């Protein structure tokens, strides 16, 4: 069961609002609602006011997926470094879980969310707004987030129908890098 809660949508710092957007969380459709890309959070709410909000540091990747063999509709793909369901949030790790390796814990703590807008032309502006907002929240554990990035370490190209932003620091640093487009 997905944890949906009743809270008001963001009212300040909203960079993009996309109505008629279906949310699919780990393969389970939550229905149509409104996606809010705000400076502090990414939020989605259905028509009754139930929804969820994500803080940008928990988002490890976001991309536009146009690969219809992976999912039948073009969408904004978001990978979150947390398990967003009731069972994972209600059950604390017991002593057996503490013995697992951190790699296993990372695999268990991933949630995939697909935001499918009714207007596919909105995908670019949804993605751009997320890039801008995620750049406002650099990863404190990322060594490259100190601003000394020269652009030579990364080879970014469109692959398998996805335009990828692998994190806030990469997106923010490419704005400063001397890159031919």
From TrEMBL:
GO cellular component labels: cytoskeleton; cytosol; methylosome; pICln-Sm protein complex; plasma membrane; spliceosomal complex
Name its cellular compartments.
Cytoplasm, Cytoskeleton; Cytoplasm, Cytosol; Nucleus
User: GO:BP terms for this protein?
Assistant: cell volume homeostasis; chloride transport; mRNA cis splicing, via spliceosome; spliceosomal snRNP assembly
Q: Which keywords does this Swiss-Prot/TrEMBL entry list?
A: Cytoplasm, Cytoskeleton, mRNA processing, mRNA splicing, Nucleus
Bias class Acidic residues marks the residues at: 93-109, 140-163
Q: Write one Pfam family the protein is assigned to.
A: Voldacs
**Where is the stretch described as Disordered?**
87-109, 134-181
Q: Which chain regions cross the lipid bilayer?
A: none
Protein role: Involved in both the assembly of spliceosomal snRNPs and the methylation of Sm proteins. Chaperone that regulates the assembly of spliceosomal U1, U2, U4 and U5 small nuclear ribonucleoproteins (snRNPs), the building blocks of the spliceosome, and thereby plays an important role in the splicing of cellular pre-mRNAs. Most spliceosomal snRNPs contain a common set of Sm proteins SNRPB, SNRPD1, SNRPD2, SNRPD3, SNRPE, SNRPF and SNRPG that assemble in a heptameric protein ring on the Sm site of the small nuclear RNA to form the core snRNP (Sm core).
Please give the family membership noted in the entry: Belongs to the pICln (TC 1.A.47) family.
Q: What is this protein called?
A: Methylosome subunit pICln
- Which species is this record about? Salmo salar (Atlantic salmon)
């Amino acid at each position: 069961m997905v944890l949906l809660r009743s809270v008001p949508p963001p009212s300040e710092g909203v960079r993009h609002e996309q109505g008629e957007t279906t949310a699919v969380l780990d393969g389970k459709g939550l229905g149509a609602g409104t996606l809010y890309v705000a400076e502090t959070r990414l939020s989605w709410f259905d028509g009754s006011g139930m929804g969820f909000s994500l803080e940008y540091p928990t988002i490890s990747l976001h991309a536009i997926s146009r690969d219809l063999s992976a999912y039948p509709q073009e969408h904004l793909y978001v990978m979150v470094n947390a398990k967003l369901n009731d069972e994972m949030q209600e059950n604390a790790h017991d002593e057996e879980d503490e013995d697992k390796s951190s790699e296993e814990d990372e695999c268990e703590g991933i949630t995939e969310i697909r935001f499918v807008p009714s207007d596919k032309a909105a995908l670019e502006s949804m993605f751009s707004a997320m890039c801008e907002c995620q750049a406002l929240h650099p990863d404190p554990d990322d060594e490259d987030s100190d601003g000394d990035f020269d652009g030579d370490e990364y080879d970014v190209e469109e692959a398998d129908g996805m335009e990828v932003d692998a994190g806030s620091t990469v997106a923010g640093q490419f704005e400063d890098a001397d890159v031919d487009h």
